[in-house]
């Protein structure tokens, strides 16, 4: 793996050292000013080396730290050690002092092409000055709004992704002259200046100075954040009549041809537009502009019938983005804020409403099954997607969480493939390679580029495969990324939790009637209230009832009578699941849906439903569901008892039967969506649906092993194994089990050979090579080898039984013995076993397990020598692998 692949998304990070700048809140500012250069901790402490290192990088972004009575000996970063960050701006969340609008250090406007203040002798070398001059863009902003800082960092990260060197700073936070000297050099040397303007920015002298300086150089690109040019102009007309402000406004008007305004609904578009403008002005036409449409990996469309939850959505927004605005009037500040946040001024008082800071970057939405946790996360993702670079949706089910996180690398453009034979001069172990794969994803996700990561339906705090802590996957410091976790767990680690309560009655009634424009009489509304009570206020149950009312076009009282008369009886025990517990009425609703499909002769949709329970909890294409359904017999007889208790004649005239042609696979899949049992997904081309977890558990229980076998046989129809890897793993769990789980389905010898050859072996190779799932891939190959050895033993036992057959019975049983023991099947089993052994040897070679790999490879050679001969190409290939193993083992 070359260095470019290793450092993707975090370019030049290793060469960057953040600059720590000493800020003093001492009342004796004049005294401090005189001692800036002689006694600055940056110059006299051991950490001064960090300062010089910072000057050598064109990506530096000086940051400020709080006051400390003792000079720091080392630079510290609020980012965790395991998440290297790109160059970095002062974090507004760390400061409670006000934004000074006039510094105690005498300021001179940018009238000269050289820095205004010369540093101590030796502070700058020609090489470091050249590095500073190599910056392409300066990004200036001013304000305490965390979202402003977040947006400015996002612009910087996006530009750096395009290969544009940036320097971002809020210069009002700098207290010593050396920090301003660095910023001055960059401002004087950059090609373009981007100034992020808020309503109150021009009250700050430094921001006004930047606008005027870049305007005179005709390289100003203003970006209005949560405001507009007219609003800024009107505000300044009322609060300021200074010459500098008026001149700055004039330059904003002259430079506003691009009309870059970042509002709530277009942050992402604005950032992409800024990057496109600068890329064009700088002549970076070779960099391909990325598509901004459909970047989000939200698996579902926006729900047009989303009801209520406005309080919860607002709370999530407040947790992630804070609330409030920063208000300033015309006045200048000559000292920093005191501990209580009041701004000390010589003449007037700077009125300010402190911005309420974001509480957390990780939020768990907790609630019972079917309560609507996923719906809340989905609604938030659609509403606020423009505030993020990308929305990444990950299924949190235990067996699939690891693979789903690795799948996100495809969307992020990260290479997490396994190493070649050597990496950094040595062969790395499998654990190191797997750790590195997750580290690359974490490096991209948890930095200054804002992402929204949604982990839906998290089942356990511990990772299922290796039992790792969730903090190994989600660091404590997530950078600019926000994480939403939906779960039934009462508490997840130390993350902040939002307990989701049932919908209020008014919203619950709207949920059942929202798809119908017609209003029900009062007595029918009372029946709807009964539904809410009987269903335990389950949002999922109410949604299914609402779907039935809409599709069947019947009164709630008729539907309630039909569902209520269903007798669960003896089958109740087998449906004892945490999804419904003692809520048998929800179970009756699902039974009614199945009986309805069976009664309307839509057997394809019914078989799709039953087989879908055994697939992975992710979107499934209609073609794949139809392939599984084709291996199932019509399940009519199994529903006779329920059909008797459900008078479906009441619904024959409803139009549900007549209006459904059900001629195609897609039509049958969409019937399940119309009934509320599944929702349509947009994650893959074509028609894909995803079953609700409650529906999937119910279908798995009712479909039985017949549906499970059909699911396994349908995996051969999977077109893209990478996009459908979770469904392939689901079939592996059914055939082999894993860890302590027993296998669910027993395959015949020929079926086992075909399954391993067509499904399991390619899945193991893909998991290893594409996603660095080294240990999982080797474990799968080992289990496959053991399964083939069991088949071999069964063949051997059949051969041993042959002499005991009576001669008179030989002719009668000859055909049966031929079916049980096929010479060609035996040969296929043996050669496939050799292929598995060779594959394991090659993978063990890449992890440095030479002894074990040599042992496995010798077994493979022995088998092929007997079956194929010494000079066969496959035997020679295995011998070549063996020689490589021996050679590397001897070197080590």
UniProtKB/TrEMBL annotation:
Residue span of region Disordered: 24-44, 61-94
Origin superkingdom: Eukaryota
Segments forming domain AAA+ ATPase: 359-507
GO biological process, any: recombinational repair
Amino acid composition bias (Low complexity), ranges on this chain: 67-87
GO MF annotation terms: ADP binding
Alphabetized InterPro entries for the sequence: AAA+_ATPase (IPR003593), NB-ARC (IPR002182), P-loop_NTPase (IPR027417), Toll_tir_struct_dom_sf (IPR035897), WHD_plant (IPR058874)
A Pfam short name: NB-ARC
Protein name: AAA+ ATPase domain-containing protein
């Amino acid at each position: 793996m070359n260095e470019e692949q290793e450092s993707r998304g975090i370019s030049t990070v290793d060469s960057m050292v953040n600059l720590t700048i000493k800020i003093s809140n001492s009342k004796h500012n004049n005294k401090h000013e005189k001692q800036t250069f002689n006694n600055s901790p940056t110059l006299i402490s051991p950490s001064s080396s960090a300062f010089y290192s910072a000057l050598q990088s064109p990506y530096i972004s000086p940051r400020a730290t709080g006051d400390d009575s003792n000079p720091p000996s080392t630079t510290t970063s609020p980012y965790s050690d395991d998440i290297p960050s790109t160059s970095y701006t002062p974090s507004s969340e760390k400061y409670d002092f006000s934004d000074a609008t006039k510094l105690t250090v005498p300021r001179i406007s940018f009238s000269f092409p050289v820095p205004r203040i010369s540093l101590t002798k030796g502070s700058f070398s020609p090489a470091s000055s050249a590095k500073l001059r190599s910056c392409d863009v300066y990004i200036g902003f001013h304000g305490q709004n965390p979202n402003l800082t977040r947006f400015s960092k996002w612009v910087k990260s996006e530009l750096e992704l395009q290969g544009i060197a940036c320097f971002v700073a809020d210069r009002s936070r700098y207290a010593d002259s050396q920090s301003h000297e660095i910023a001055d050099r960059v401002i004087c040397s950059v090609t373009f200046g981007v100034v992020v303007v808020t309503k109150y920015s021009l009250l700050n002298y430094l921001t006004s100075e930047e606008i005027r300086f870049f305007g005179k150089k005709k390289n100003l690109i203003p970006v209005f954040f949560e405001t507009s040019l007219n609003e800024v102009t009107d505000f300044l007309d009322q609060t300021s009549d200074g010459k500098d402000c008026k001149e700055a406004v004039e330059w904003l008007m002259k430079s506003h041809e691009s009309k870059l305004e970042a509002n709530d609904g277009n942050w992402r578009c604005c950032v992409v537009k800024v990057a496109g403008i600068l890329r064009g002005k700088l002549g970076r036409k070779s960099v391909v502009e990325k598509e901004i449409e459909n970047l989000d990996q939200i698996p579902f469309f926006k729900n047009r019938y989303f009801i209520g939850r406005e309080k919860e959505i607002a709370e999530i927004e407040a947790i992630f983005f804070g609330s409030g605005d920063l208000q300033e009037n015309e006045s200048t500040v000559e000292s920093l804020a005191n501990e209580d946040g009041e701004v000390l001024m010589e003449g007037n008082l700077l009125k300010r409403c402190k911005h309420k800071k974001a509480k957390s970057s990780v939020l768990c939405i907790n609630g019972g099954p079917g309560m609507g946790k996923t719906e809340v996360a989905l609604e938030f993702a659609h509403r606020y997607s423009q505030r993020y670079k990308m929305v990444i949706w990950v299924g949190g089910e235990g067996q699939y969480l690891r693979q789903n996180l690795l799948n996100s690398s495809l969307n992020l453009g990260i290479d997490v493939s396994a190493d070649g034979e050597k990496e950094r001069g040595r062969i790395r172990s499998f654990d190191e390679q797997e750790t590195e794969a997750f580290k690359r994803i974490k490096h991209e996700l948890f930095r200054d580029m804002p992402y929204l990561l949604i982990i839906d339906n998290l089942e356990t705090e511990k990772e299922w495969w290796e039992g790792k802590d969730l903090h190994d996957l989600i660091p404590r410091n997530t950078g600019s990324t926000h994480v939403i976790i939906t779960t039934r767990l009462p508490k997840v680690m130390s993350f902040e939790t939002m307990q989701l309560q049932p919908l209020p009655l008014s919203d619950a009634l709207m949920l059942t009637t929202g798809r119908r424009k017609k209003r029900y009489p009062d007595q029918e509304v009372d029946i709807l209230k009964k539904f809410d009570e009987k269903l335990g206020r389950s949002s999922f149950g109410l949604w299914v009832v609402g779907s039935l009312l809409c599709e069947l076009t019947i009164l709630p009282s008729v539907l309630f009578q039909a569902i209520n008369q269903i007798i669960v009886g003896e089958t109740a025990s087998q449906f004892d699941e945490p999804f419904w517990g003692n809520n048998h009425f929800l179970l009756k609703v699902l039974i009614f849906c199945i009986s309805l499909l069976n009664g309307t002769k839509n057997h394809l949709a019914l078989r799709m439903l039953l087989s879908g329970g055994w697939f992975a909890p992710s979107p499934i294409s209609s073609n794949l569901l139809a392939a599984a359904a084709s291996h199932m017999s019509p399940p009519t007889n199994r529903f006779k008892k329920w059909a008797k208790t459900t008078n479906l004649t009441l619904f024959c005239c409803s139009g549900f039967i007549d209006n459904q042609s059900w001629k195609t696979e897609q039509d049958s899949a969409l019937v399940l969506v119309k009934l509320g049992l599944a929702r349509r997904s947009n994650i893959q081309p074509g028609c894909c649906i995803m079953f609700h977890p409650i529906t999937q558990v119910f279908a798995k229980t009712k479909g039985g092993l017949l549906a499970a076998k059909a699911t396994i046989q349908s995996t051969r129809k999977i077109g893209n194994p990478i996009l459908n890897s979770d469904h392939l793993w689901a079939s592996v769990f059914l055939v082999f089990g894993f860890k302590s789980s027993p296998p669910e389905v027993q395959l015949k010898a020929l079926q086992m050979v075909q399954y391993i050859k067509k499904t399991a072996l390619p899945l193991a190779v893909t998991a290893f090579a594409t996603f660095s799932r080294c240990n999982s891939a080797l474990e799968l190959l080992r289990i496959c080898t053991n399964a083939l050895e069991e088949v071999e033993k069964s063949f051997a036992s059949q051969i041993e039984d042959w002499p005991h057959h009576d001669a008179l019975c030989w002719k009668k049983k000859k055909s049966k013995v031929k079916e049980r023991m096929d010479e060609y099947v035996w040969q296929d089993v043996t050669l496939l076993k050799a292929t598995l052994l060779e594959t394991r040897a090659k993978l063990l070679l890449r992890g440095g397990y030479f002894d074990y790999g040599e042992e496995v490879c010798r077994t493979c050679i022995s088998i092929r020598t007997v079956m194929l001969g010494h000079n066969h190409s496959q035997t020679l290939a295995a011998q070549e692998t063996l020689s490589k193993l021996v050679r590397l083992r001897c070197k080590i």
